Fold each of these.
Amino acid sequence: LENGSLSIIVLGASGDLAKKKTFPALFNLFQQGFLQPNEVNIFGYARTKITDDELRDRIRGYLIRDKGASSKDSEAVTNFLQLIRYVSGAYDAEEGFQQLDKEISKHEVAKNSAEGLSRRLFYLALPPSVYPSVCRMIRHFCMNKRNIESGQSEMNICNVPLCNHLTADLGGWTRIVVEKPFGKDLQSAEELSSQIGELFDEPQIYRIDHYLGKELVQNLLVLRFANRFFLPLWNRDNIANVQIVFREDFGTEGRGGYFDQYGIIRDIIQNHLLQVLCLVAMEKPVSLKPEHIRDEKVKVLQSVLTIKDEEVILGQYDGYRDDPTVPDNSNTPTFATMVLRIHNERWEGVPFILKAGKALNSRKAEIRVQFKDVPGDIFKCKKQGRNEFVIRLQPSEAMYMKLTVKQPGLEMSTVQSELDLSYGQRYQGVTIPEAYERLILDTIRGDQQHFVRRDELKAAWEIFTPLLHRIDDGELNPLPYKPGSRGPEAADELLAKAGYVQTHGY
Ligand code: BG6
């Protein structure tokens, strides 16, 4: 940090997201020295009436996941927890936010030198229904002081998007972090965006999609644009199809009420998988500047054609409706496979198959790029499968290329093998940061590269809204599948129809 103080305010501090993701990410940053006790204050805000110590006790157990924690770790936990204070109040209560502002200001002053900067990061670990009122409260009562005194927001002082040195000159900043779901369809998302947009400028709004913080998702840009290998191959002439797959081996237990309102398409495909698709399919950005990258992502999204009903398979696992918070007649999909088609010069005719499911036989997220057959094959190796390039996002990050080699031995026969880069082996001893940890650090640094811009969000909803409305209206219904299975068999048939040639089980 430069001179001054940083206040991180977690709204919804007693909720699940805050406990499981936000506070542990902050703790990791603290442990690595990114959050210095002489500069940083952390505040929790929620409706529950508890004391500072009660909040600290609630969080403590979530901070260290590793069972072999040392005494140094426990000391770090204690020091970290000392930075946290709690204020209770409703999400639309002026008094609550006035009190919050008083607390922030008090501790800010203690850590702020006379010419120091006031930086306030508001993390909304809350349901989107309260975003508008919370944003209004923050805007009216809790902005960083120097900006408020000059009566100007970050953006309109200079009329240019901000970068760090500018914000520094202007006396700090206020930023807000919001989580998906951003709305339920195009219209509701646009309404939400306008409401927030009236209160904050785009450079102050950080829309998190935590998949953009995953190591191997971030690696996609490097892989594609820093390697000569991929440049000539990454197109419709060579690639037969692309699969982007998310599987979980557990159901929606404990969050059926939330899930049933959204379903797998809104929960995973419209955001996490679509963001990955953008990075796989986009053209090379002019530079690594956030706006350049996001410009290219928007172009991909705008080139996606309307999804055809016959290229969608929905599923719902048996037992999903047994959850008391799920209606007995729910037609919410817990599984979906669909084909997206990108109408541009690079990808015309290449199916992008997005697949996501809960309660399946394994937990895995991967990108599988399948290449076309070799023309004029003299080895008759077609039956062994095609070249594939697989990027496993989790678990056990890895990239591997499936290729045909000579079967070692006296015969001139072929076999499928792999060039394998497994991160666990190659980067032994390197800790891969948690997605939230990295994204919160980006927010503090003012780097929006890995956050979703408003027009990107709009374009993403434009792709899925017609399909989602047909599902909501009961025109498309999910097929049943057994928990612990691969999902409905019809999904494999759709894959085959889209041209995917199975090599071996995955
Ligand atoms: C969340 C979804 O965004 O991502 C959850 O709401 C899902 O339903 C989770 O379980 C998966 O995240 P990860 O990082 O475990 O793949």
Amino acid sequence: TGRVCHFKLVLLGDTAVGKSCLVVRFVRDEFFEFQEPTIGAAFLTQSVNLENATVKFEIWDTAGQERYRSLAPMYYRGAAAAIVVYDITNKESFNGAKSWVKELQRRGDPNVVIALAGNKADLHTKRRVEYEEAQKYAEENCILHMETSAKNATNVKDLFREIGEVMYVI
Ligand code: GTP
Ligand code: MG
């Protein structure tokens, strides 16, 4: 379908929020209960077909553990899009996500498209971050926001598709 656009996309967020699981769900449609913590970063690609174009994402899945924090700028530099992930059952990870958004807005590409993903939406009985709170934050900061579940696949394709649509328009 029409032209093919290549976009560099980076995932950022605290350790264990589910960045790798989201990518594995998107790229291979699989989920592992015991996904290993990422070391350094992982690179994967996947495409989404839009009405008039194909968007090919070149995805950098970064490591959230503190010891890797200083590597992050290497991965978000030049990224056209960023997915900042938090875990809806972990308030601290939402604070971490906000600091990633701030850092991206200060030091990332001036036109970077940022999406905030509240992952583990399947664990709604353990929820600690209200949807409305995150949505309000996203609106105030002009970024996308969606709750996802890598485990049951809720909103995972939609998240990448929505980013692709925004980038294609830009
Ligand atoms: P780092 O690589 O250390 O930064 O962590 P990460 O953000 O990549 O987390 P990872 O994808 O490794 O996920 C950590 C664990 O969270 C996984 O082993 C899963 O058990 C769990 N997990 C991830 N996504 C979901 C989800 O949507 N729902 C539930 N219930 N668990 C999830
Ligand atoms: Mg990981």
